[in-house]
Design goal:
With 179 residues, the protein is mainly α. It contains five helices and no strands.
């Protein structure tokens, strides 16, 4: 290990007071990378060599690609199966399913209740309309009868005036005749 990596940022700040925090971090990171550089380069070399071996021929290249894809697919299928199995049998899922069933039953009950109420209201409206129609007919007959009675009343009033004039005329004639 180098001496710089062992120092804390506080110690580096004391040693280099003119540098900012960001500059000190870069300084520390550069030291780390320099130390790890040989390891990183060795790993990169190994990766390149193994990749050369795998891609030396097209047939070999496609084989390795197929193997990697197959492995990924199998892992994904396994995870999906596990998730489905756990998900369907978990207490939360069972609770959710029972809640859904309860809500479905409540919805069915509510629909039946509202259907019945709707039918009751429809029947009440039909009854009210029938009563209204009967009242309108009766009202029409009553209006006609009132008109007839008013007409008869006018005629009687006219007859009464005639009779009153006739009686007055007779009384006047009797007075003149001396009675």
């Amino acid at each position: 290990m180098s001496r710089m990596k062992e120092k804390t940022l506080h110690e580096l700040a004391k040693e280099f007071p003119n540098k900012t925090y960001v500059e000190l971090e870069k300084y520390r990171e550069a030291d780390r990378q320099q130390e790890a550089g040989s390891c990183i380069m060795g790993e990169a070399r190994k990766d390149r060599e193994s990749e050369k071996d795998r891609t030396s021929s097209d047939k070999n290249k496609y084989y390795w690609m197929w193997r990697e894809e197959k492995k990924k697919r199998q892992e994904a299928e396994g995870e999906t199966t596990i998730v489905k199995g756990i998900g369907q049998n978990s207490p939360e899922m069972k609770s959710a399913k029972s809640e859904v069933e309860a809500l479905k039953q409540q919805l069915h009950t509510d629909r039946e209740k509202y259907k019945k109420e709707s039918n009751d209201l429809y029947n009440r409206i039909a009854d009210a309309l029938a009563i209204n129609e009967d009242h309108q007919k009766l009202n029409g007959k009553l209006q006609m009868r009132i008109t007839e009675l008013e007409q008869e009343n006018l005629e009687l009033h006219a007859d009464n005036k005639k009779l009153a004039h006739q009686i007055e005329d007779r009384i006047n004639k009797m007075r003149k005749a001396g009675m």
